Known about the structure:
Elements: H1 2-8, E1 18-23, H2 29-40, E2 47-51, H3 52-56, E3 61-70, H4 78-93, H5 97-111, H6 120-136, H7 140-153, H8 168-177, E4 181-186, E5 195-196, E6 199-200, H9 203-208, E7 210-212, E8 215-223, E9 226-241, H10 260-270, E10 276-281, E11 284-289, E12 293-297
Parallel strand pairs: 1-2, 1-10, 4-9
Antiparallel strand pairs: 3-9, 4-7, 5-6, 5-8, 8-9, 10-11, 11-12
Amino acid sequence: MIVALLALSSLPLASAAVPVVFEDDALDGPAAIEQVSKRTGLPADQLTATPIEDLLSTPPRIIGGGVLRYCARDATEMVDIRNEVIRAEAKWREVDPTGAMDHLDLAVSKAGCLTELIEPTVFARMFLLRGSLLAMDGRTEDALAEMRSAIAFQRNLSWDVGFPVEGEPLFEEARAAGTSLAITVEPGPSNAGPWIDGQTITEADAVNGVQVGRGLHLIQTASTSGFRSAWLVAEGDAVLVLPERYRSPVLAAMHSAEKHDAVSALVRAAIEDFQAAYVMGQGGMWLIDNDEITELIPPTPLETAPPAKKRRWWWPFGRR
């Protein structure tokens, strides 16, 4: 009890109840709260019951050094993005940089609402022109960020001599910067993505981390609820959490210390304004905060199958 109370001593319990996440056929919300209160000494009114199903229905989230920005408009298709980029380039050829940027801004806004996989070359060109126009306007840092995004979508991208010349040195600077951040995935990927900047995240990538640069990236996921896109502003190493990909019983993973992180990622990502939560299931109880997992009650040991009996063969002339 002392460990649990010390771990929560710095949290503003008066302003927000601590979630009690439960996954157990023998438990309901009131019973889960009662057990946590009895084990930790925390008053029941400082706890709130949260079925794990509520966490599994949340959209993809990012934890760590990044922010996901979801669509705020109607769903779009790739043809909508392609057309806006074509219009932007036409405006630039007419020496109308303001008109070109208007179409590019609209393309970026629509891209976060895509319901299909992107065409990376279109996105690369979109950000290359945006960066060039910003460089021409003297906005060097903003232009450099756009160039990094352009290269993220197409690693072998070449400079376009038809774009504003002020952008070329920034393009070369962005190319030389390379990648320095890692995006891992919980749980691991499947045949249905996820994708980052149009590239499939492989199983090895999901574990070791997809290497990306700082700045804007497009995350795309597919699930039973449909295809979803969201802009990721990457500022440091991060974990992409896909709640719908977890399979019940989720807390069976708590039997293995090697799988604790997957459960911790789900709880930290799916609970709004997360600071700490109790987790109950598999007969055990844990406290999860932003730094660690503390076991308060060990889970019920997994049943092991009895050893197979040695088979005896019957022989008509006696035992062999």
